[in-house]
């Protein structure tokens, strides 16, 4: 009687429950790349095609030099004659077999290229998924088989699916720049905030990524503005030209470091910005030199 009137959510366990969890957070929809298995598959396909290619070369040479059939000797110079021979010709059958194998090989090769271009999964997202699968009371309850759960039937084929981070990818990456500061904010700091504050207050640790991006943008804007103001004030109170130049060098190094920390800029962009920042300070020194 109870099972007949059970609520739908009570039956959502295992993979269906995991699908519900990652459906609202595509960054947590993490899947295995199977890099080693894909490479092994390509290697065997490559060897198979190489063997077929060698067989084809022998057949072509035999048709050209030793065949008693006039049409067979013209296969190398006339596609129409080869096509007309069709399945009666060994060379035609070999070429059709190779065509199909090459289509499969090229498709698998391009898919692997696309997979290898994807970045490894975010550490925090993987940690969040791990906690949901093995630790949280409202999570997956170790359905992939956890050694600590004695009542769980062993399923060693899926136990280590999420073990090797370099072989994992997610359906979607988190928005925003992948600079060091944002990664730091996304990492241990946010993980501590999620577990110690959000989860205890609300019963879950979900949040809007746009809020995090606004916080990061605000912090970066404040620091960038303060650096220019502070450097100007410090240079104003330094009267020695040598000391001013040393101060300019120090502020320039700090500026370049902040660009590397707060942005995802390339080296040439950071160099150009640092040069522009230094020129502003040098102009200030030139206009204030001689003044007391």
Number of strands: 2
What's the rounded overall pLDDT mean?
A: 76
Distance between the termini: 93 Å
Roughly what fraction of the amino acids lie in strands?
under 5%
Q: Provide the structure class.
A: mainly alpha
Radius of gyration: 32 Å
Number of helices: 11
Which sequence of strands runs across the widest sheet? 1-2
Name the shape in a single word: elongated
Helix content: 55-70%
Give a short account of the largest sheet: 2 strands, antiparallel
Q: Spell the H/E element sequence.
A: HEHHHHHHEHHHH
> Low-confidence segments, ≥5 residues, pLDDT <50?
1-7
Lay out the secondary structure.
Layout: H1 14-23, E1 30-32, H2 35-65, H3 70-73, H4 79-85, H5 90-117, H6 123-134, H7 156-159, E2 168-170, H8 180-202, H9 209-237, H10 241-262, H11 267-288
Helix pairs in contact: 2-5, 9-10, 9-11, 10-11
Q: What do you see in this structure?
A:
The chain is mainly α. The chain has 11 helices and 2 strands. The chain has a two-stranded antiparallel ribbon with strand order 1-2. Helix 9 (209-237) runs antiparallel to helix 10 and helix 9 runs parallel beside helix 11. It is elongated. The N and C termini lie far apart (93 Å).
């Amino acid at each position: 009687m109870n099972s007949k009137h059970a609520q739908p959510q009570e039956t959502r366990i295992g993979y269906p429950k995991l699908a519900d969890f990652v459906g609202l957070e595509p960054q947590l929809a993490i899947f295995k790349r199977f890099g080693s298995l894909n490479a092994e598959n390509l290697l065997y396909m490559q060897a198979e095609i190489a063997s077929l290619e060698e067989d084809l070369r022998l057949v072509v040479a035999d048709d050209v030099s030793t065949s008693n059939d006039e049409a067979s000797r013209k296969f190398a110079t006339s596609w129409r004659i080869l096509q007309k021979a069709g399945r009666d010709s060994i060379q035609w059958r070999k070429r059709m077999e190779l065509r199909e194998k090459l289509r499969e090989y090229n498709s698998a090769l391009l898919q692997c290229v696309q997979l290898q271009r994807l970045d490894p999964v975010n550490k925090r997202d993987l940690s969040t998924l791990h906690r949901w699968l093995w630790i949280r009371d409202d999570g997956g309850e170790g359905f992939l088989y956890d050694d600590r759960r004695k009542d769980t039937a062993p399923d060693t084929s899926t136990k280590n699916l999420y073990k090797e981070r370099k072989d994992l990818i997610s359906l979607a990456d988190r928005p925003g720049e992948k600079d060091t500061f944002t990664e730091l904010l996304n990492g241990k700091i946010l993980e501590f905030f999620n577990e110690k504050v959000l989860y205890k207050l609300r019963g879950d640790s979900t949040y809007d990524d746009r809020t995090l991006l606004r916080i990061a943008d605000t912090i970066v804007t404040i620091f960038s503005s303060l650096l220019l103001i502070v450097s100007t004030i410090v240079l104003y109170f330094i009267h020695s030209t040598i000391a001013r130049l040393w101060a300019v060098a120090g502020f320039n190094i700090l500026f370049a470091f902040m660009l590397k920390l707060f942005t995802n800029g390339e080296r040439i962009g950071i160099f150009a910005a640092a040069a522009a920042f230094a020129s502003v300070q040098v102009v200030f020194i030139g206009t204030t030199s001689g003044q007391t």
